[in-house]
Structures are given as C-alpha cells and as structure tokens.
Amino acid sequence: MRVYVRTYGCKVNQVDSEELAARLVGEGHVLVRDESLAQLYVINSCAVTAEAVAKVRKGVRRAASLPGVAQVLVSGCAAVLHADELTALSDKIVIIGGGVGDGLPPRGPVSASLRPPSTGSIPNSSSGHTRVPIKVQDGCENFCSYCIVPYARGACRSTSLDTLCQQVAELAANGTEEVVLTGINIGRYRDPETGTDLVGLIRALDERTGIGRIRLSSIEPPDVTDALCELLEEGILCEHLHIPLQSGSDSVLAAMGRHYTSAEYVEALARVRAAAPATAITTDVIVGYPTETEADFASTLALCRQQRFAKIHVFRFSGRAGTPAAALAPLGPRIVADRARRLRALSDELVARYTAACDGRTLEWIVERIDPATQTATLTSREHLVMQAGARGLVQGQLVELPFAMMKTSIPEGAEV
C-alpha cells in the first residue's frame, strides 16, 4: 500500500514516526510525500494542549475524507487519551496507541508489528540525515499540575546503553556527524542493565561511537548537575541547553508542581555558565497559569531579562482535562494574550542581543543541506544558531569552521531542537 505519515508534536513523536515508517516499508509498503496518493494514512498525534488536540482532530478528519485512503492509523498521545473521540470521526480510523501506548490494544484490524515501540527509536542509518534525533528515554513521573503527558506516556523507561552505542556507531559510520538525544524527561535516563545515568551514556557515546557532535534536546533544571556541566566544559556536549523555566515566580512554580525554586533555577544556569560561558541557553515559559498574578508575571519577566536567554519559547496555559490545574478558574483571555505578547517581545529583544554578541565569532557548523537551485547552504552551529551561506566548497554533512554572520540567521522555533 502507499503510505503517508504525518507527525504532530514533539521530537519524540518525530522519532517514533520514523521507526513506524521504517516498519511499514519493511512490510512492503511504499512511502509517499503527497497525501493525495495515500491508501494508508498514518497520524502520530499530540495532546500537550487543547489546541494540539484540535489540530489532530482536524487532521484525522481530513485524512479520512481523502477518497483514496482506505484506513487511517492514529498513534501518539491523543490516540491514548482521546481514542473514543477520534474513532467516532470515521469508520476508517484505527487506534494503534503511541510510542507510549505499551499494552494498548489496537482498535481495529492492524498488524501487531505496527505498534510503536516504547523506547529505542532511531531513523534508518542510511537515511542521509546530518543531524539525527535519538530517543533514549520515554515517560515522565513528575506529574506537574498542568501537564497531561505523564498520563499518556506512562512511567519512565530507557533504552539500553549498549543498544544506543551500537545505533549511534552505525549512524557515524554512515556519515552522520550529530545526534540529538531526546526523550520525555531525559534527565531520568537509566540504563536498564547497569543503572548508568545520562552523563554516563553521553560519555559512552563519545568514547565508543565516533560521532562528531552530541546535543541534548531538553533537560529539566534539577538534572543540570556539576557532572553534566563538565561535559560542556570538556566539549563533549554541544554548547546549547534547553532548560524549561515555566515561571519565575516561586508561588506559581509551587502551584505548578515544579520541583525547584527560581533561585535553584538561577543556580543551575550559573553552573552552566561557569563551566562553558559561551553556552546558549533557551527556555520554555507558560503564561497565564490560573494562579499567576501580575506580580508573579513581573517576576518572570525580571528573571528572564536577568538571565539573558538566547530565546524564550512562550506558551499560553491550556487546561487539560484530568490534570489538577484544569479544576482552577482560568484567567481572562485578554490578560493571558497580553502577557504572552509582552514576553514574546522580550524574547525578540534577547534573541537580537544574543545574535549580536555572536556576530563575527568563528564557530563550528554542520552543513545541514544545500539548495541546488540557489547554491545556498543551511548550517547549524554547536550553539544551535542557524546560518545561510554560499555553498561553494561545502559538502552536505561536513563540519566546518566559519565566522557567524547575522544576515539570514535564526534560532529555530520550538521547545526542542
């Protein structure tokens, strides 16, 4: 059958989709890039916000309406949490769970081999990617008051260190220069056989695989340890960390169920900058949590300005049924929109300041892709800056040292790299 795969949500979902696509190809199906050609339509869904679920619902309805599509397979968090709602949209829809749906019985006649795995997903090593995400961990047990993910993803579980080393070594042998370690809560990585933690995994990948660069997708503040910072200092980790803040107010952090104070968050950033001063630090902030006052928001603004983030990813609070925060009276939408606007304006200011400070610095770049029509290369630095440059003399996938030029540059959108 001709198969079209569409992914919503986080980097973990993207990795799960790649493995699911590989399984389908292994069964003799053919992937297509044009959804109108699909006979089997696969949707890997997201449920992190109400808006995300609405987008999934719209996408599922659209997929089922395509005349050539015989079946729509739905995986991911929304499939776990909203199975009945989604299957009611069309008799073409089959729920296959998610990279999180371990043990979830499929609703409809679908091959058991299509069930996404819990961990260890990796794109085919011959895919030609220059930067490849590797899912090393799945699940979360933090149960922040606003977050639906632990209910969908389940308990923490990790892929074995030896398996990951083998996979990354194969990628490196096939020309991949950078891997991005990703998961739902990667600071909770533990090798199921030896108990080795995330720092031990990174050191093993550095020593045993020949990979050029190792990057983290996102890490929680309590997991920014001295041992992790040593990896930055030694140049083993790329000098970019995405460390979610969520709020600069201690009262809001406590209400959210976050496991740190604003002072502890600042201390974590100080450890990073003491070890590797040039590290780019990006963050997530939720505005409009139901208990957030104007004074709380002012504390968030002040902390963000003080900490000189390279970029702030701003999210409006979205109440998720089944979470403690959903029972709280929401703030007025105009208040939330205004706070989001003000924080995004600060983010724009900080991005401009950070990129200006990097202008002219010689950095290590990976050549992500080359547009043959314009002979323009897109490059990504260790700090996760993106730059476009003339492609003459450059080869896709190679590591090069070039001065950073602010023209046509950016820090990518999204909470994960």
How would you describe this structure to a colleague?
With 417 residues, the protein is α/β, with parallel strands linked by helices. It folds into 4 domains: 2-114, 3-Layer(aba) Sandwich (Rossmann fold), CATH 3.40.50.12160; 137-214, Transcription Regulator spoIIAA; 218-358, tm_1862 like domain (pyruvate-formate lyase- activating enzyme, Alpha-Beta Horseshoe), CATH 3.80.30.20; 362-410. Helices cover 34% and strands 21% of the residues. It contains 12 helices and 18 strands. It has helices spanning 11-26, 50-65, 77-81, 83-87, 149-153, 161-173, 198-208, 226-233, 250-256, 262-275, 294-307, 333-358, and strands at 2-7, 30-31, 40-45, 71-76, 93-97, 131-135, 137-138, 157-158, 178-182, 213-216, 240-242, 280-287, 311-316, 362-371, 376-381, 386-390, 399-403, 409-410. It has a 5-stranded parallel β-sheet with strand order 2-1-3-4-5, sandwiched between helices. A hairpin with a 4-residue loop joins β15 and β16 (386-390). α6 (161-173) packs parallel to α7 (198-208) and α11 runs parallel beside α12. The chain is globular and about 55 Å long. The relative contact order is 0.09.
Structure at a glance:
By secondary structure, the protein is of the alpha/beta class.
N- to C-terminal separation? 32 Å
Helix content: 25-40%
Mean pLDDT over all positions: 89
> If you compute it from the alpha carbons, what radius of gyration comes out, rounded to the nearest whole angstrom?
21 Å
Q: Can you identify the CATH class of the largest domain?
A: Alpha Beta
**What is the CATH superfamily classification of the largest domain?**
tm_1862 like domain
Topology, number of strands: 18
Indicate the proportion of strand residues: 15-25%
Number of domains: 4
What's the helix count?
12
Shape: globular
* Largest sheet entry: 5 strands, parallel
Poorly predicted regions = 99-127
Reported by name, the CATH topology of the largest domain is: pyruvate-formate lyase- activating enzyme
What is the string of SSEs from the N terminus onward? EHEEHEHHEEEHEHEHEHEHHEHEHEEEEE
Strand order of the main beta sheet, please? Answer: 2-1-3-4-5
Structural class: alpha/beta
CATH architecture of the largest domain: Alpha-Beta Horseshoe
